[in-house]
Specification:
Layout lengths: L2 H19 L10 E5 L5 H8 L6 E4 L2 H10 L6 E4 L8 H4 L5 E5 L2 H14 L3 E8 L9 E2 L2 H11 L5 E8 L10 H15 L8 E7 L6 H6 L4 E4 L1 H4 L9
Length: 241
């Protein structure tokens, strides 16, 4: 397969997923697609970007992300950090990302607040929720009462703007992920009711669903999905796409 044919296949899969998610409107807004580009060659990404408009690109590792942002960085690209963020990496990221999707604990939030205040910037974030509760994922406990108190606490960190929630479902068959996504939507809605009086916390984004389970996530109310292999890999099989 030529490079041109490979790029065209990637673009076609990307556009097909965009078409699918456009059917799942939530509160008057169409869900957004984050194209996960981790481990993908910069040259390939640049070729794909010539064919798609205003994509959101998601990266999992700070060093890899910063290299790509420096070398790619066209004006029409939005960058999200979607992986586990270590506190010792925060000083490197500055304002490179329009959204950090993976605030998983209070010390991380505190360090982000400290760095953002020092640089006089505001950082948009999502709170990562450990919906699996089995010790395999990072994130805050999936408990409504705890999270209602948490958002009150985080509201005092004025350089952090909490835009919603993110979660990673268990790596199981898509049909079995539904209870996890349904529970996340319930948590999201419960917190939304508590945000009206808060200046720095709102529930606008519910990021859940990846290549193997995004249809189920959309059906249960996701407003943002994170897709990598279903776009980039020929061998990826998803009956919904």
């Amino acid at each position: 397969m030529s490079d041109k044919e490979q790029v065209q296949k990637i673009v076609t899969r990307y556009q097909k997923i965009l078409s699918v998610i456009s059917k799942y409107e939530q509160y008057g807004q169409k869900p957004k697609l984050v194209l996960v580009t981790k481990n993908r060659p910069i040259e390939l990404i640049m070729s794909v970007l010539k064919e798609i408009k205003k994509p959101i690109l998601g990266e999992n590792r700070v060093s890899e992300a910063l290299e790509k942002i420096e070398k790619i960085n066209p004006n029409n690209v939005t960058w999200h950090f979607i992986g586990h963020l270590q506190r010792n990496k925060i000083r490197k990221i500055g304002d490179k990302f329009s959204l950090i999707q993976s605030i998983s604990d209070i010390p991380l939030a505190d360090e982000l607040q400290k760095r953002a205040a020092k640089n006089d910037i505001q950082i948009n974030c999502l709170l990562q929720i450990d919906i699996c509760e089995d010790g395999t994922k990072f994130g805050f406990p999936a408990k409504k009462d705890y999270l209602k108190g948490l958002i009150q606490d985080l509201n005092a960190r004025t350089n952090l703007k909490i835009k919603g929630l993110m979660t990673i479902a268990p790596f199981i068959s898509s049909d079995k992920t539904r209870p996890y996504f349904k529970r996340m939507r319930s948590i999201f809605d419960a917190l939304a009711d508590k945000c009206e009086s808060l200046n720095n916390v709102e529930m606008k984004i519910l990021s859940m669903g990846m290549s193997n389970d995004y249809i189920t996530a959309l059906e249960e109310g996701s407003t943002m999905i994170r897709i990598g292999s279903a776009v980039f890999n020929d061998s990826h099989s998803n009956p919904n796409t």
